Every structure is written in structure tokens, then in C-alpha cells.
């Protein structure tokens, strides 16, 4: 059973930074892609950024230049560095892992940005 545990969310002022972590139970080499999604109240879940097993990254236009996704294979952990945060970044952020056969989700971590 795969478990993804997010941490690092919180309340910060606009312009501030946070670093989210997603710790997987077992090797993250099993997953073709790991990603961060977010869901704001009343809105659909949307892709924020993803990173392949080879280290290639992809970002949503609304976070380019502000967020950075990375992975530490030795720690089985994926990170999302959030800089220059805006109130519209307020959402629950979810970790996602995609293997050949299944899609896994974490429980989410709340990020709240005050203006």
C-alpha cells in the first residue's frame, strides 16, 4: 500500500515563502511522475507542477518563476518550494504519484496566504 504524506503548509503573508514536502512510503523510483496539485474552495483541482523519474519538470503557467518542484530520491521525498506567494495561491495542496497501474494521492496540506 502506497502512502503519500504531505507537510509544510501554513499561513503566511503575501510575498512570503513555504516549502511543502511529500514523503512516500517506499521508493519513488516506482512512479513515472510525481506531482503537486491544488484545490481552492469552490474550484476544481488543478496541476501545479510535476517531475518525472528522470528529473524533467513541468509547471502551470500561473506558478512559473515562483514555485520549484524537486525530488530527493534517497529520502523518497518530493518538494515544492513556493516563493512570492499571492492570496490566490490559497488552496489545499495535494501530492500525487503516478505509476504504470495506479494513481495515488496524499491527504493534502492547507496553504493560506493573507493579503
How would you describe this structure to a colleague?
With 115 residues, this protein is an all-beta fold. Helix content is 0%, strand content 53%. It is built from no helices and eleven strands. It has strands spanning 4-7, 10-13, 18-24, 33-39, 46-52, 57-59, 67-72, 77-82, 91-98, 103-105, 109-114. The strands form two sheets. Strands 2, 4, 5, 6, 9, 10 and 11 form a seven-stranded mixed beta sheet that branches. β4 and β5 (46-52) form a beta hairpin. It is globular and about 40 Å long. It starts with a strand and ends with a strand.
Salient structural properties:
single chain; 115 residues; mainly beta; 7-stranded mixed sheet; 53% strand; globular
Number of strands: 11
Q: What is the overall shape?
A: globular
Number of helices: 0
> What's the N-to-C terminus distance?
40 Å
Largest sheet: 7 strands, mixed
Q: Mean of residue pLDDT? A: 96
Low-confidence stretches: none
Question: Which sequence of SSEs, written as H and E, runs from N to C?
Answer: EEEEEEEEEEE
What share of residues are in beta strands? over 45%
Estimated radius of gyration? 13 Å
| Helix proportion | under 10%
How are the SSEs ordered, and which strands pair?
Blueprint: E1 4-7, E2 10-13, E3 18-24, E4 33-39, E5 46-52, E6 57-59, E7 67-72, E8 77-82, E9 91-98, E10 103-105, E11 109-114
Structure described in brief:
This protein is mainly beta.
